[in-house]
Amino acid sequence: MKLVKELGIVTASAVITMTGMGTSSTAQAVQLFDFEYSFPSYEANSAPISASGTLTTTDLDPVKNNYTITGITGTRKVQGITETIIGLLSPGTYGLNDNLLNASTPLLTQNGFSYLVSGNGEDGNGDVNVFYSSFDEGYSELSSNVDYGSFSVTPRSVPEPYTASGSLLALGFCWWTKRKQAVASQKNHKEF
């Protein structure tokens, strides 16, 4: 009778875990992309600009074939000074940014994405806008001092909720098994 009760508890736990695995989760909607860009100097007295870090986006919009950038981390280097990327600016706040990342080339729109750095940024207030030229010239920052250069993204894997749920189920089963062995061991010691 006791064994049947314990098997029922284990079965119920497994069913609840499997049900949780099938439901949609916000973790499924998050995508991470490592980004990197480099823009050469345009004028003789200016310096090249480069940046790298991670973009956090929503899941791919299959109709528009793009992701919405929801977060950013990383660094930006200009004139030998490394600035920390503090955070993403809301759409439409600098350079008419739309904060979209396309699934195919060009990777950015002509409005691009905007973020805030710990230094002066492009506008003296720490704001930066990265975009793709509408004249098919390439990627650049909203700045008169840099030319068009390279922009790349590499998808980073995010653990699937199924993996996390399966791991929790396995840990729970291992704990239950260890507990049963400890109880059985204590019973055997009492009998002697």
Verbal overview:
This protein has helices spanning 2-22, 26-29, 161-191, and strands at residues 31-39, 49-57, 66-78, 81-88, 100-102, 113-117, 127-132, 139-141, 150-156. The chain is α+β, with helices and mostly antiparallel strands and 192 residues long. Helix 1 (2-22) packs antiparallel against helix 3 (161-191).
Observed structural traits:
9-stranded antiparallel beta sheet, 9 strands, elongated
Q: Major sheet: size, sense and barrel closure?
A: 9 strands, antiparallel
Number of helices: 3
Shape: elongated
Counting helices, strands and paired strands, the structural category is alpha+beta
Strand/helix succession = HHEEEEEEEEEH
Task: Give a nutshell description of this structure.
The protein is 29% helix and 33% strand. With 192 residues, the protein is of the alpha+beta class.
Would you spell out the secondary-structure blueprint of this structure?
Elements: H1 2-22, H2 26-29, E1 31-39, E2 49-57, E3 66-78, E4 81-88, E5 100-102, E6 113-117, E7 127-132, E8 139-141, E9 150-156, H3 161-191
Antiparallel strand pairs: 1-2, 1-9, 2-3, 3-4, 3-5, 4-6, 6-7, 7-8
Helix pairs in contact: 1-3
